[in-house]
Design a protein that fits this description.
The protein has about 90 residues and is α+β, with helices and mostly antiparallel strands. It is about 30% helix and about 25% strand. The protein has a four-stranded antiparallel sheet with strand order 2-3-1-4, covered by helices on one side. Helix 1 runs antiparallel to helix 2.
Length: about 90
């Protein structure tokens, strides 16, 4: 499945969140990651993030898509992250 993950973490945990997400997904912009994952990979990613997060201060939003057939990505302005790692 294709996944877009967005997080908002307290400053002292941002580096940990970023490192965990980079192991599974492509960094797109600040706290935004995307990529293809299996359900098991997504579950492992979320378990790792939940282990370091403070649910009173941090948040994670995950969008999942079964297919990219109806998905369009458009960047306006400066592209951040590493566009060479993108899937299309």
């Amino acid at each position: 499945m294709f996944v877009i993950l967005v997080y908002d973490a307290a400053e002292r945990r941002v580096q940990k969140f970023h490192r965990i997400c980079r192991r599974y997904l492509t960094w797109v912009q600040l706290s935004v990651f995307e990529g293809e994952l299996s359900r098991a990979q997504l579950e492992r990613l979320l378990a790792e993030l939940k282990a370091v997060m403070d649910e009173e201060e941090d948040s994670i939003i995950v969008y999942t898509f079964r297919t990219l057939h109806y998905f369009k990505r458009q960047v306006i302005g400066k592209s951040k992250g590493n566009p060479e790692e993108l899937f299309w």
